[in-house]
Amino acid sequence: MKLNHLDLQVADVPAAAAFFESHFGLEIQGNRSSPTIAILGDGHGFLLVLQRRKRDTEAYPEGFHLGFLADDESKVHAQQAQLVAAGVRCSAVMTNNRGTMFYCHGPSELVVEVSCRAGTRFG
């Protein structure tokens, strides 16, 4: 089996969709103007579904995040610099035995990890 989609509940669907389009290369599939749902694709079969949450009090559990895997360490550093320049709140880039990574905060307090695994080069 292959992972098909991830459905996230967010406070502001258009803002979250714009964040993933602008910074992570996902593209909206279908109705761009819906305030309640956006379906974004990565061009490789994965879909990120964003739906407006029903209650403002809903929150993600501590530690919840989604992750993007970069081809190499230089792309992790470049992505962090691009996000910081755009005013996105990001951690410093760190390296440990898992790899090189940083975390950023998107709309609706979504936490996003960008990483490259230790000793791995893709492509």
Structural key phrases:
2 domains; four-stranded mixed beta sheet; 2,3-Dihydroxybiphenyl 1,2-Dioxygenase, domain 1; alpha+beta
How would you concisely characterize the structure shown here?
With 123 residues, this protein is α+β, with helices and mostly antiparallel strands.
Commentary on this structure:
It is a single chain. The chain is α+β, with helices and mostly antiparallel strands. The protein has two domains: 1-54, Roll (2,3-Dihydroxybiphenyl 1,2-Dioxygenase, domain 1); 64-123, 2,3-Dihydroxybiphenyl 1,2-Dioxygenase, domain 1 (Roll), CATH 3.10.180. 20% of the residues lie in helices and 34% in strands. The chain contains two helices and nine strands; from the N terminus they run βαββββαββββ. The mean pLDDT is 92.
